[in-house]
């Protein structure tokens, strides 16, 4: 057993070990560093790997819609997340980013991005700030549970490492993008400690479809642009991407909780794809009524309905034989059925559902069964769509957990 006291600065200050060097862990460290001795530990070789992957297309930090509507995006977890999100709001997150020299702008669909549009610039400035605050970083240590003196880890040479801590914060992420370090292996450790953890499931994910070989060979990788997807009473506008084994994309991700639940229950799960959502059925039927003599179905649909080849191919996948009647065809264009057969794997998902049950933590985000251990971020049982909601809740719960650590260390303890 190796005991490590963490950073040497201010030995009279409480020691806090933060497990996980992603956005949640780094936020906790920044909040506590001014008056605590903070060490951040990660089993990967560097910090912020998932943040960097998320920022490849521009780092979507948060969203500018009204807060009441914003909070609704968290579904059943809204009530448990609301105090944290109100205490560290989208405006607070934007101000924090600006304080790092990374001012933000509002992009399409009211999403918020750093002006640099790069996660690397923000992460570099953030790590510089943490270094100035005296935060220690230790890599190559995998969390394995608790010892008498603090959290225990498995070192690179398979030795046990115990870091002395007055408080511990777990910020290990969910189970998606395992290559960045968030592999979900912590679920076993917590369950072994008697803590209720819901299974990690794909969220903001794709779904499998039994495409024909002909369709896959010609259209895998093709986008469906400006479509509307409907399942049940929920409709989402956006784009979808056709893969060799299924369908994904922003509009699909927004429906993923409903689609996943339907598949889990064993119900037939048919996604309705509206290929011309801006054209009423009667107007579309009128256009289709003007079919030229001997005009092929493909040419007819491209000319009269304005459909690209991939959309025509999708209509054929739905029924093989396309209707000649313009009204029937218009209805099919506006509601093309795609039968889903399953959920794509967790590691292909953007995020995960499931995690530590909220009943296992108190209002300070401390584990009831493990006083002095706090949790933040995607480890908790909540999910949200893309659009800035994921990172916002990650930052907000981390700020709340840091406040919980401060409160717990300052008060009387058993």
Question: What features would you describe in this structure?
Answer:
- There is one protein chain.
- The chain is of the alpha+beta class.
- The protein folds into two domains: 264 residues, 3-Layer(bba) Sandwich (FAD/NAD(P)-binding domain); 137 residues, no CATH class.
- It is 35% helix and 23% strand.
- It contains 15 helices and 21 strands.
- The strands form five sheets. The protein has a seven-stranded antiparallel β-sheet with strand order 18-17-14-15-16-13-19.
- Strand 2, helix 1 and strand 3 form a beta-alpha-beta unit.
- Helix 1 packs parallel to helix 15.
- The longest helix is centred in the last third of the chain and has 22 residues.
- The model has no long low-confidence stretch (mean pLDDT 94).
